[in-house]
Amino acid sequence: MADKLEELIKWSKENGTYIDDRISFQNISGRGISAVINADINSGDNLIKVPKGIFLTPDLALRYFGSHWKTTHDRNEQLQLLLARLKFEKEDTIVDGVNISKKMAAYIDFLPDQGKDIGLPYFWNEEEKDMLRGTDAIIFLQRFMDAIVDEWYNSVTGLEGVTLSQDMEKFYKDYKKGYYKNGTFVFLDQPIKSWTSFPAYLWAHCIFASRAFPYVLIDPHEKKVHKAFLLPIMDLLNHEIGCNVRWDYNDDEYVSFTARESADRMKNGHELFNNYGNKPNYQLLLGYGFVIPNNTFDITTLTLKVDKETVEGARMFGAKLPEDASELGINFEISRQDILPEGLVDFFAYVVRLKSEDGMYTTRMKLEGVINLRAILETKVKVFKNFKMQVSSWTSPCVARAIKTYRTSQKTMFQNAIDETNRLEKTLLKQYKPLSFKEVVKQDTVFFNSLLLTFGVMNYDDLIKKKLLDQAVLLWIVRNANKKHYKDMDQQIFPDFIYDTFSDVKKMVPITKEDVIEFRNIYSSLFPALTERIPEVYNVGDWSPRNFIVAGTVCDRLTFKRPSNSEVFFLEKKSI
Ligand SMILES: C[S@@+](CC[C@H](N)C(=O)[O-])C[C@H]1O[C@@H](n2cnc3c(N)ncnc32)[C@H](O)[C@@H]1O
């Protein structure tokens, strides 16, 4: 590698490349060839200049393939195929009388010979890929691989004068039939025999993904964002998040590289970095074969499967869903910057809405939705926590390290989203100051004493411990409905909104057989014992089973139980 690097630098300089004497290229473990600063550099200095004579551009590929190319090429098919030819074809490649194979030999020789040496997951073995199980990365890897296979086949079979070998035809047919679902490693691990083979094309795709520059840099009129070109020497710089660099195309002649970093980062001994863009880890992994711990641009996906009506209903309700949301799945993007997207919270609020809450978001919906969302996020974290990485002699330590970092970052994002649901719950409770049942029990001493006498309940926590909280809430809702019968009680402790909701429900909601069955046991566990023991509370007003059933609906409509401490809150129905 050192010889090839030396050759590359020598060749580039002979062809007019300028490399500032204060930088040199070295192999750094874990990062490959890296640019190292040998003497302090000033911000804004031009450090590298690469002349257009050694670019590998789409125009060159177009000129080479010319009219032999019969199919469409929306991405970088032509140049990738030319690159594959330059690397894997012994015969010279001549374009407009220039022997490109000879001209670019030092660059092509420097590029890794084997697909797996590029380090991208496409060439990993099955044990290694399996360690990505359950993550976004494995889904994208599969999706991208399918696309590359089609891209290759369409390109090569559309090339006049090229006949695909039988084994490649077989590979394509078998791939499309799904025979490679269990892995492509054995197939890809063989020496590359032909530049038109799939392994050669995949190799070129990976070289492009990890080294190419956007074509728009040298042609500002270019509209295709994916169009790229190869820029030797400049592609030796490694990536660092957020570093301030510039690439400029000057006088239509050469691309220059400038770093505008603070002086302390440009000192002797530091690495000179490029900036590949604000990429999440799955893009870095699939495009470059490395990931960044605590990557501030990392994202993950929470995929939810619901029916079509729910997707459409949520949209109509006003929840901001991702554009491609459908019954096939809603993919909510969770990013480090937006750890709990509004659309996700709204969607869960929509899902838990009651019929009585149609057309508006209520505090209850938001709180209940947040609880449900948290439960799903907790399941995600649990899956990540329970995942055991099976590292064997087949797995490269470097790959295992990258996957561990990737998985940790994914888990952290889900954990951060959970923390955010806790914060949101607290904020909502603080903002809307709902009536706490704990407070109610404190204020309504007559009611509390009735619980003490009948169930031996000493305080609110006792209600929880003795599993009597739900019954106590129902009892108090009925007591609230009977408030006018308690002449000597301070009526302030019985809020109107609970009373009014009770009256509405009683008037509007029919009682079903199922309701009767649901409440029968709970009712008979309390009555007539309560009537007999504490008549001043339970023999005043209407304590019929029907009122108990109504109280059940009122409870659904107005209460929220905080999962962390089982505190029950009454929430007035208000649009938020
Ligand atoms: C454009 S090349 C940079 C030169 C490369 N190091 C080489 O040896 O040729 C991109 C590749 O460099 C490596 N790389 C770049 N930035 C890195 C980083 N921050 N950490 C680890 N590897 C990095 C990855 O292997 C990536 O695919």
TrEMBL record:
InterPro entries: SET_dom, SET_dom_sf, SETD3_SETD6_MTase. Residues 21-277 form the SET domain. GO terms for molecular function: protein-lysine N-methyltransferase activity. GO terms for cellular component: nucleus. SUPFAM superfamilies: SET domain (SSF82199). PANTHER family: PROTEIN-LYSINE N-METHYLTRANSFERASE EFM1-RELATED, UNCHARACTERIZED PUTATIVE METHYLTRANSFERASE. This is SET domain-containing protein. It comes from Eeniella nana.
